[in-house]
Amino acid sequence: SVPVIFDNYLKPESIRMFESIGVMTKKELEKLIGEIQKKMQKAAADLNFEAAAELRDKMLELKKQLNDME
Question: From CA 13, how far away is CA 67, in angstroms rounded?
């Protein structure tokens, strides 16, 4: 399940992708990482550093999964 803090920053289709990370293709995972990165930057610009940090942590976790796929 998606942490509540992400609801304000991720689009509904990204939330669905987030929930199915284990079955995502490399391309889908790259797309989700890109969106999370943009939302992380928006959260930081909004001075919502807690959300930005959580998004950063999730992005790093997803990047590790992406590297494991290669």
Answer: 23
Residue in this structure with the two tokens 């001075």, named with its chain if needed = 47
Question: In sequence order, what are the residues at sequence separation of 6 or more whose Cβ sits closer than 8 angstroms to the Cβ of residue 49?
Answer: 43
Beta carbons within 10 angstroms of residue 42's beta carbon: 15
pLDDT by residue (tens digit) across 1-31?
445 555 566 666 665 566 556 667 888 889 8
CB atoms within 10 A of CB 51: 21
pTM: 0.70
Alpha carbon 54 to chain centroid, angstroms: 9
Distance CA 44, CA 51 (A): 8
